[in-house]
Amino acid sequence: MPFDPPSPPQILRNRLQLLHERIGGRHWFPQVPLAILLGLGGFWLLQVDLGRHWRQIVDQLLNGGQGLYPALLPPLLIGLGMVIMAFGLLLRSRLAWAMALLLAATAAVSMLFGQHRHAHLLIGYFVLMLALLAFAWRRFDRTSVTASTLFALTSVAMLIVYATFGTFYLGAEFKPPVTDLVTALYYAMVTMSTVGYGDIIPQTSEAKLFAVSIIVLGVAVFATSLTAVIAPMVTRSLQRIVNRKGGSMKRENHFVVIGNTPLALNTWRELARRGLPVTRLLRQEPESGLPESVDAVFGDPSDADVLRKAGADRAQAVLAMLDDDSENAFVVLAVRELAGKARTVAAVNDAHHLGRVKLVQPDVVIAPQILGGELAAMLLSGEQVTADFVLKRVFQQPVGAAADRPVPGPEPKPEG
Predict the structure, then answer these.
(1) With CB atoms 3.0 to 4.6 Å apart as the test, which of 248, 267, 285, 346 could cross-link to 362 if both were Cys?
(2) Residue 380 lies in a domain
(3) Residue 136 CA to chain centroid, in angstroms?
(4) What are the CA-CA distances from residue 306 to residues 250, 294, 296, 332 (Å)?
């Protein structure tokens, strides 16, 4: 196919990806910047809504809550929730990402209907936060037990604060009246657990609606929190059961063949026919499925975590044989970042891309499709085809280098 020169956006994207690889961005980007932005947004919201004395308000809340009024609770809970969820973003938790999205949206809405001096700045800040979180949603794909536990504890704590102080502020509307925080906490826990001893009864419509909100939120929070903590454990157990196809292969000193092209399929088939350990790495599982005897990993081939799952850091060689030559180059860069012992083999499908692929310095460059036209022309013109020529043109490196650095494999067995 004809080669089109890369456009300026493509050049910029390639340079940014190279820079991302060089600075080790996969270890901290984008979770660390987003966590910092979310934490700063939480502190800013506390500062705007509660003033410079928000720390004293928090201390007062923890020491009894005397003198506080209900309007302080929403911004206090949203701001503290942002600060806590920032730690969940550091773990790349999908649950923390969803909570951060919800808190940022809630904060933006509260600023929209509130009257604050810096409301417009905060609305813009939280809208930008929402856009950045939505843009980076693919990076938050982990179901961490730690992050789920953090979410569960935060949700339960916020619900207890809401129920306890709401009961305390509406204390005169209960029979008997609630006049202290201990009694308010007791009523909150009894109502949240739907036990309902009946010793404290709401009398007014506001108090009854408040009790209904406690019941609904209590059931929802406890059920969600329990699911959030247990689901990752169950998911991991199921994955181990599902992925255990007839005995798992030990991914060490093996070959990783990446791609579903004819070259990748034939390479995998020939390696397996020789009794060599091979792992296939595909973007997604084929609709027809794979035989149980095939050791396979599914995911983004240029993602270091996926490569590490396939054992690329412990493999003899990693063979990037995708349709896209640029993806093969990025796979080589990702494998090199793992700092393992694996040799890298990159396939080139278009002759125009050969020089660019060589820039990433794979150990071996295979260009069989490029060779086809040359061999056809040589045979038709009567030129002699030698083994040295074929070796040089297929692997696109000098014959001496190929002899000095063979692709790893088992030692040949002696005859007889």
Answers:
(1) 346
(2) no
(3) 9
(4) 16, 17, 11, 14
Instruction: Mark whether 201 and 60 lie in a shared domain.
Output: yes
The whole-model pTM stands at 0.49
The number of beta carbons lying within 10 Å of the beta carbon of residue 116 is 15
pLDDT digits (tens, 9 = 90+) for 107-137: 888 888 766 667 888 899 999 999 999 998 8
What is the full DSSP assignment across 346-409? EE---GGGHHHHHHT--SEEE-HHHHHHHHHHHHHHT----HHHHHHHHHTS-HHHHHHSPPP-
In DSSP notation, 128-176 reads HHHHHHHHTGGG--B--HHHHHHHHHHHHHHHHHHHHHHHHHTGGGEES
Q: Are residues 102 and 40 in the same domain?
A: yes
Q: What is the DSSP string of 98-128?
A: HHHHHHHHHHHHHHHHS--TTHHHHHHHHHH
Nearest-angstrom CA–CA distance, 98 and 95: 5
Work out whether strand 295-298 and strand 278-282 pair parallel, antiparallel, or are unpaired.
parallel
Instruction: Report the first-to-last Cα separation within the chain, whole angstroms.
Output: 50
226 in the same domain as 324: no
User: Could you report the per-residue pLDDT of 263-309, keeping only the tens digit for each?
Assistant: 899 999 999 988 899 999 998 888 777 787 888 999 888 888 889 99
Residues 150 and 265 in one domain: no
